Amino acid sequence: MPVFSTVLITAAPAGMGAEAGGAFVKIDGRETLLRSAELFLNREPIKQIQMVFLPEVIEEAKRKHGGHFGFSGVKVVGGGPRWIDQLIAAGEKLDAAATHVIVHDAARPAVAYSDIDALLEAAEKHPAVTLVAPIRAPLVEVDEGGHPMALHSPGQFMQMLTPQVFSVAKFKEMIGSKQELHASQFTLLKGSPLNVRVSGGGDAGLVKNMIHMLPKPKAKPLSSPFEEAQW
Q1: Contact 166, 103 (CB under 8 A)
Q2: pLDDT-above-70 percentage for the chain
């Protein structure tokens, strides 16, 4: 049976530096990163969860969230400044038993449980799988000054989402090269368009509604009286 290790990244992906703080926005009173970590708790194949912070904020993160992370078994790691640098830092502490690695943007808390189930299933057949969603409107290509250059049909593009999942071999290949995989190496798996990224405080209300719209998993009996109060 596959054994999964989850890596949650708190920095923004390449090209989104201005939106790096999305993981720390509060949604209905709780930081986005806590809600994102919850997506992977109490899933039998997932044996390790790491939350990777930029070095300049890791001590503050430990003070604010150390209790929550310690109680739920989430490991805190420091790395950066780039997205790939955070993956490299997590790779150094990867569970030796892991056969696959899940990578998730901690600023994306609105992920359907069924999408994660489908992703874990696809991981058994493909070395690199990513969730995607269709683009529903034409795209305007602009230059550095924001001036329109070209119009593109939405049918030519898909929006890349997270989580993504990699075999351990493919993950180590990626961090060894210090570059993210080329798009051609991914298997695409259609996910919910409700999986939006928090980019600032103005998104909190929207993402809260998105979370409430997601299908709910069937309730499972709690394994202990403390499980319900993890967060």
Answers
A1: yes
A2: 91
